[in-house]
Write a structure and sequence with these properties.
With about 190 residues, this protein is an alpha/beta fold. About 20% of the residues lie in helices and about 30% in strands.
Length: about 190
Amino acid sequence: SADLRNHAVAKFVIPFFEELHKRPEFITYAYSNHGAVDESMLAIQKNMDVWRTVVQWSDDKLAEKIREDQIDILVDMSGHTAGDRLKVFARHPAPVQMTWLGYPGTTGLKAMDYLVTEESLLPGEDMSPQFTEKIIRLPPAFSFDGKNLIYVTWNDTTLGRICKLDFSVPDSEPEILSKDKKFDSVKVSIK
């Protein structure tokens, strides 16, 4: 991704990578398609087992390196935005490929297996025919109404806390709207 830096995507994924890094069964690689060194980039980098800055690499070189690294699941976080590497995904360097977070629509690539989204972002009628990817729908995790960001922090796969951050108050701290709540399961649907 070109967004593993001071960017909105980074703000959402930093907590995710912090939690993922605590799980020894995962080995994480980041292929950063931007040369920036900033606070967000460093926060992500410290939670990766392997960090590669690939902005100067050709698509062929990057695809070959991903194959050498034996990546099982390759995740795109740029979609059709600046600095994307969709041509690498078109080369299908990993057995499972998915897109998540950085772009709200389809990549249009037959080589992209899944699109991960939140249930509320693709509501209503079945939108699957408009996507080349199978859609993985996660339960609501955040919403933003222009003033408040409502989000869920997950302590493990089934323990969540609902929080609110009021952007109309300078330097506001998150307000906890619920105590830790045990969920019997987290429903994920794939269509």
